[in-house]
Amino acid sequence: MAKDKKKQPRPKAETPKGFRDYFGADVTERKAMLDRIAEIYHRHGFDPLETSAVETVEALGKFLPDVDRPNAGVFAWQEEAVPGGGSGDWLALRYDLTAPLARVAAQFRNDLPTPYRRYAMGPVWRNEKPGPGRFRQFYQCDADTVGSASVAADAEICAMLTDALEAVGIARGDYIVRINNRKVLDGVLEAVFGSIENVAHAIIEGNPTIAEQKQAVLRTIDKFDKVGRVGVCELLGKGRKDSSGAFIEGVGLTDDQIELVIAFLTAKGENNEQTMKNLAETVATSPSGMQGIIELDEIAAMLKAMGIGEDRAVIDPSVVRGLGYYTGPVFEAELTFEILDDKGRKRQFGSVAGGGRYDGLVERFTDQKVPATGISIGVDRLLAALRAKGLAGADGVGPVVVTVMDRDRMADYQAMAADLRAAGIRAEVYLGNPKNFGNQLKYADKRGAPVAIIQGGDEAERGVVQVKDLVLGAKLASEASHEEWKAQPAQTEVPRADLVDEVRRILG
């Protein structure tokens, strides 16, 4: 007699680590928000683009495979090489929406208009360690202009971003788009390192190159908002202790060098004109830095002409983004209203979007200069901001539920639901076991149904239906006296022909 096969263990019903599921309200609210943003982008002349979720790792470029970690940073796999099928290429899920755009711009350069304005919305995947609020799959919403070297394209992106934030409900005064220029920062670095042959203050053994010192300075500047002036001075100098007490080695700059960097970071004046003047004094000896200031001045003038005041978009030298990526203007949208953190402390909500000019990305494919600029909105973060302001996250209204009193009359109930849907009213028929009417009302409550439709045999013979206002019923049950409940009943009887009109009245 053969032995019984070993019973296979049941699979675990759980999402992979770092991933999550999105249910009704999450999906609905996100779609509503993105639809409003898409309308703004469309109005500015941008076309939608949907690219493949899978790209070759070579095309993605940022995380090229190596011997030890072929999938570093991305979810990647090698395609099986088979006759007439796969070629053995390394493939990966896209980690952002910009790298696919660069591939599209190169692949279809003879078909696309120049400049090419596009927006894209969708999920991206990153093979990184997950943490609180940090997932391996998340949504992005991008808008880019490829093929224009004019800073008018950068100004247009910034203006469009302010319109998009207001379109989703963020009020003026609750956000600011801050603008800087990589060229200005390059000018600061020239002022700091230009005359130095050998860096005397090494932070590692072996005398780091000036290029390495520059990268260390850039990383430190990016911490200005977190550690403030004193913290940045310490990190640019000998180092400092962090909140845990651990000592962080400094960059090793002299006091004079540190003062130049701080002058740049604190150059923001009462208005754009004063900020530009302060910056010019900081980078006066740098042609690159002065070119960056000219570009910022042009952007500020164009924004003003478009009706974008400094209360909505402002020149701010403290904006530092992924600086190896950008080549010119950079921008960041920050929400300025306060929320409570996990410990009940007030803090500013912070950044929800960022971008800038990246003139070298398409060149990887074409070996030709192709200027580009764009913005990326963190979809989940912006949605969280809307919920924090009470602009999203309210319980969604569920469908009208047609209850079933007689299983043999299912066609009649389906006809009621069809009539409601034809009138633009969301409706469904209860499809569970109809024996227990209480369970049907519990189901309607769980669905967030505003109205329940009831028709038993007696009502059917008389050609009427019972329409139960579930919202009013719940309110009366919790707040009203017995007399009030009698004077304002939540359930009414109407002719079957008046069903749609009665439901419309209740829904307002």
From TrEMBL:
Keywords: Aminoacyl-tRNA synthetase, ATP-binding, Cytoplasm, Ligase, Nucleotide-binding, Protein biosynthesis. It is an enzyme of class 6 (ligase). It is found in: Cytoplasm. Residues 1-399 form the Aminoacyl-transfer RNA synthetases class-II family profile domain. It comes from the Bacteria. GO terms for biological process: histidyl-tRNA aminoacylation. It catalyses: tRNA(His) + L-histidine + ATP = L-histidyl-tRNA(His) + AMP + diphosphate + H(+). One of its GO terms (cellular component) is cytoplasm. L-histidine binds at residues 96-98, 126, 140, 144, 321, 325-326. The keyword ATP-binding applies. One of its GO terms (molecular function) is histidine-tRNA ligase activity. Its EC number is 6.1.1.21. The keyword Zinc does not apply. Its main location: cytoplasm. NCBIfam families: hisS. Belongs to the class-II aminoacyl-tRNA synthetase family. Homodimer. This is Histidine--tRNA ligase.
